[in-house]
Amino acid sequence: MSIALAAWRIGATLIAPLLPLHLARRARRGKEIAARLPERRGEGAARPAGRLFWLHAASVGETVSLLPVIEAMAARDPALSLLVTTGSVTSAELLARRVPKAIASRVIHRFAPLDVPAWAARFIRDWRPDAGAFVESELWPNLLAAAAARGVPMALVNARMSARSAARWARLPGLLRETLGRFRLVLARSEEDGARLAAFGIAAPCWGDLKAAAPPLPADPAALAALKRAVGERSVLLAASTHPGEDGAVIAAHRALAAERTLLTVIVPRHPERGLAVAAAAEAAGLATARRNAGEPPGRDIAVYVADTLGELGLFYRLADAAFVGGSLVPHGGQNPLEPARLGCAMAFGPYMGNFAEPVARLLAAGGAVRVPDAATLAETLRDMLWVPGRARALADAAAAVADRDTGLPGRVAGALLDLLPPEAQGADGGRADGSRTPTTSGAWQGMNEG
Predict the structure, then answer these.
(1) With the C-alpha atoms ordered 66, 67, 68, 73, is the resulting torsion angle positive or negative?
(2) Which residues lie closer than 8 Å to 251 by C-beta, 6 or more apart?
(3) Which residues are catalytically annotated?
(4) Residues whose CB falls within 8 Å of the CB of residue 409, separated by 6 or more in sequence, listed in order
(5) 218 has pLDDT over 60
């Protein structure tokens, strides 16, 4: 064990007595569920009989990308149970809504334990997964060490290493290789991520981006019909998954465009708790505003409709004539542009789309999206998309062709993950009588932590 990893273990152990206070504060802010805080200490295991595969996704985007993989794994191995850990309340709520009913009884959700050695060891000891996989860049050294100590084969899929992370790791390349040595299989999210990993001597093939292969976002048909009735003949502009600093630009664009034609602008804040603040900004600009979370409809007199609910973005992409993808006018890295692409919605986004560089490049090359250089040009770009005949349809059709490219990826990843399971049949305890497994070995095990 390196000095750096030893220091991490010691530091996590020393800070552990303070973490319950931190978790309680998060629960008061709605960031945790108070009744489920013991899960953050690795407690509350209820291991089912038979084989168990553990999947960890940090938040909403990673959880969505896992859903088709989960379905494929469950279909290929009808006796397999799947334990899914996440780190956010919103991802837990999304998983509960989106897992198909046919396999819901085989999918168990728990909040991931914090990376305290004793808590991580308890989680692995009590759940005894037969194999596991992390998604993207969510790595926890103590949790991975606990899995390795019990011989649990692990994978990292959609592995992500940004240019900034590569620069950081260049100062500690040995620590990177030691940390990533816990993984038997690594699949890079993009060729760029794979190249950055290769620069450290880590082979990580790229099969594609799971976020590029996710199914279309769902929508309730009755809710969509009701919204269409309320909207009437108005054009609909959607600002999807906005972040602080973007709402003002969207509101200004609405004011410019609404001076020309009747327009309803729907703003979906990335974090629904910002709904009140977004509505207040629109009202301060003199615009009649309604909030979905308050049960208010987008009536004929409403200019800005704040859709501050969770899990309804698919509804509004279907409603919109054109969309602006948020997280891109501010240096956040953007939200997933393939979501509107799958739903036939013409899109624009700002200059900060680094989290989705590869699909963005494909969309732009195919003529399936428009990049807005700054907030000042947002209204002009959206005017073209909304009201130039045929423009929105051409963008949407080109984007749909790009989005269809990776539809077979979840099944391929599912097969690779199932190959990690031990070939021998597992009993109800999922392992040997002492609760451990025979450790396995391989060549280069890889992964990446974006911090």
Answers:
(1) positive
(2) 265, 281, 282, 285, 287, 304
(3) 62
(4) 207, 208, 209, 210, 212, 213
(5) yes
Task: Based on the fold, state whether residues 166 and 315 are members of the same structural domain.
Answer: no
CATH number at residue 381: 3.40.50.2000
Interval 309-332 mean pLDDT: 96
Percentage of the chain lying above the pLDDT 90 cut: 76
- 362 has a pLDDT exceeding 90: yes
Which of 188, 133, 131 is closest to 155 using CA atoms? 133
CA dihedral sign of residues 206, 162, 59, 84: positive
Domains identified in the chain, total number: 2
Backbone φ and ψ for 125, nearest 5 degrees, come out as -60, -45
Phi, psi of 307, rounded to the nearest 5 degrees = -95, 75
Max CA pair span of the chain: 74
List pLDDT tens digits, range 71-106: 999 999 999 999 999 999 999 999 999 999 999 999
The token duo for 196 is 């950055």
Task: Say if residue 172 is in the same domain as residue 314.
Answer: no
Q: Give residue for tokens 């003529």.
A: 367
Number of H helices, E strands in the chain: 18, 13
Give the DSSP H/E element, type plus range, for residue 230.
helix 221-231
- Residue 217 tokens, joined: 């976002």
Residue 451 lies in a domain: no
* 177 lies in the same domain as 125: yes
Q: Which domain holds residue 309?
A: 221-405
pLDDT number for residue 333: 94
